[in-house]
Structures are given as structure tokens and as C-alpha cells.
Write a structure and sequence with these properties.
DNA-binding; mainly alpha; homodimer
Chain lengths: 175, 175
DNA sequence: TATTGTTATACTCTATAACTATA
DNA sequence: TATAGTTATAGAGTATAACAATA
């Protein structure tokens, strides 16, 4: 895929020299996404860093269970883009902290139904509004006219990247 | 965008007991950014995974030097959002591979001017177009009418997240 | 004393595979 | 044989601080 031709820009290039399409890191989309996601994660960590200290996988499990109420580990992984080993370990940690509980599925003993304990729901009820407020603070920085486009763009980029990414027909989600 | 009241579930639902929390992971901006950035990075890795195998810090140093020609490690870190230790190690690896060379600054012997070797420029000249083509493939997935908004939104989000993130008045950039 | 850059250390994550128990 | 989930292992990546050399 070492394409050279510059056919990927349908709209007219404002640049005077069409031949010289320079790679500028600060304009390079993967870099910008990485920096943005990293800073956002770092800032978000403050929301649940003081009282509780959750890893990102734990946070995702907590939120997913808070959202859906009860589901299997596999379903959690599918919904939160996490490999089954990540889910397994995150669930184990949350169980140890009495925030998640499991109930065997008598129809299929390989899996179990996971859900938040009352304590888990308390934590979720405390963190979810804070997380939403945080996302609101972020979104407030974006011009309201640009928000629908951002939403669409993120969806398309994720789809496309998933197509281009390696091993996506695997057992579970990724990384 | 902190959606509040959510009365869309009149029927008895077993799950969310506390305040009607409308936190949906799949709509949560930090999560979406994380997933998008992760998949994009994974896909991008294919661009420089076969021949050369660069870590992300190495890739950033290479691109930054390719873009600016010659600069100090500190300047590289500032431009590519990397801590000095990351830059130091990435540069050391690239030097070992004869892709980067250093020249002492006789006006200040603490620092050195780094630049790509001819071999480094060859690699850059090979990878940069591939990277641009990759970014083009990504961008092609986004409706062209949405691209300027995406650009603005990413800038604003990064700014805001940097404000909200911890310890950003530090010595250097972050992670 | 402050700054550039390097190194050491410990720690967190992660991927991968191997394994279990069920189906 | 296939699937849900767990555990083992090893490797990569990271942050932090301590350090050396120079200013």
C-alpha cells in the first residue's frame, strides 16, 4: 500500500505546490487522535482517581454493568471492546472489592451472569454523573455546530480503522 | 451535553435503580476517542510493521526530524508530546540503527542537534508517503463536509483536555 | 541553582497461549 | 470439537527518581 499518487484529496488543494504533500505530525490524524485520547483519559482519571481507583478495564466493566444491569463476561467484552482476559481480570478485581457479583447460568454452566452489587451501584451512581459532567465539559469546548459532525466523523473513523486494523475477525474485541 | 431526565423506560427494568443515569459507554466521548485512537494506531502499525519495526516514540522522533531536519531532544519532545526520557530512549534506538545522528552544540554542550542520516531520510521518504496515504484512507471515510468540523473539534478537545489534565505545567509534554 | 539529557528501577499493561469445565 | 472463562508467563511499555554534565 505504498501509494504515491495523490488521488486521495478530492477537494481542491489550497496549497500552491501539489507535488509536495508534507507529513506534519501536528496535522497527522492518527497522532492527533492519540494525543487527544491520551489527554482526555488522563483528565478523566481525575474523576475516579480520588476515592476509587479503577483501571480502565474495571471502569468499563462497571459502566457496562451499570448500563445494562446484568450480562455475561463475553457480552461485556463485546460491548466495551475488550479481550476476554481483560474482562476476566477486571471482573475478578471488582468482585474482590464487592462491587460485582456473579450468578451461575443454570442453562449453560460455562458462563455466569454478572451484575453490580448494591455497593457497586452506589459507586456507579456516584461516578456516572461525574463522568457525564466531565464529558459535558469536554463537549462544551466544541462549537455546538460542530458536534454532530464530530459524532459522525468518530463513527466513520472507527469503522474504517476497524476495517484496516489487523485481526479484527478474531474471537473478541481488540487490544 | 449532559443529558438529564430519561423517562424512556416506563416498564419495570431490573437494572438501574439510582438516579436516571444516562451514561452509555458507546456514546461516551472519552471511550469513543480511546477506541478510535486505538484502532487507528493498530491499523497504522501495519504501515511500518513489515520492513521496519518502530515503537510509537521512535516513529514520532523519525517523523519530527523528517519534518524539521535538525533539532534538540527537548524540541522533539515538545513537538511530539513526549517526555524527555521517552525521547532519549527512542533516539538511542534510532542511533543504534544508524537512522539518526547527533552533532554537539558547541554553544551549549548540554544539548545536541539531532538529525536523520541519509539512511534515516530514506526510511522517512518511504514511510511518510505511506503514512499520508493511510491518513487519506481514514479521512476518505469521513464525509468531506464534516472534515473541517472534525479538525476544529479535535483541536478544541485537546486544548480542553490539556486544561483539565493533571500536571500539564510540567517540564515537558506528557506520556 | 537550573537545565539537558541519560540511566536505573520498579511497576503496570499487555498479549499469547495453555488450561478448565462445560456444551 | 467448540465455547466461556481463567490462569500462567513473558514481554513491552511506563513513570519516577536519581544522576552526570554543563550552564
Amino acid at each position: 500500500m505504498t501509494g504515491h499518487r495523490n488521488e486521495t484529496h478530492p477537494e481542491a488543494t489550497p496549497a500552491p505546490a501539489p507535488a509536495d504533500v508534507a507529513l506534519k505530525l501536528e496535522e497527522f490524524l492518527p497522532y492527533r487522535l492519540n494525543v487527544a485520547a491520551g489527554l482526555v483519559s488522563q483528565a478523566l482519571a481525575l474523576v475516579y482517581a480520588d476515592r476509587h481507583r479503577f483501571s480502565l478495564p474495571e471502569w468499563r466493566v462497571l459502566v457496562t454493568l451499570g448500563q445494562f444491569g446484568m450480562m455475561t463476561a463475553k457480552a461485556i467484552g463485546a460491548h466495551s471492546h475488550m479481550h476476554k482476559t481483560k474482562v476476566s481480570r477486571a471482573v475478578a478485581l471488582l468482585e474482590r472489592r464487592k462491587l460485582v457479583t456473579r450468578r451461575a447460568n443454570r442453562a449453560d454452566l460455562r458462563e455466569a451472569f454478572l451484575s453490580l452489587t448494591p455497593a457497586g451501584r452506589d459507586v456507579y451512581g456516584e461516578l456516572a454523573p461525574a463522568a457525564l459532567a466531565f464529558a459535558g465539559q469536554l463537549m462544551d469546548a466544541v462549537d455546538s455546530a460542530d458536534r454532530p459532525a464530530l459524532d459522525r466523523a468518530l463513527t466513520r473513523l472507527t469503522e474504517r480503522a476497524a476495517q484496516l486494523a489487523p485481526e479484527f475477525a478474531n474471537t473478541n474485541g481488540d487490544r
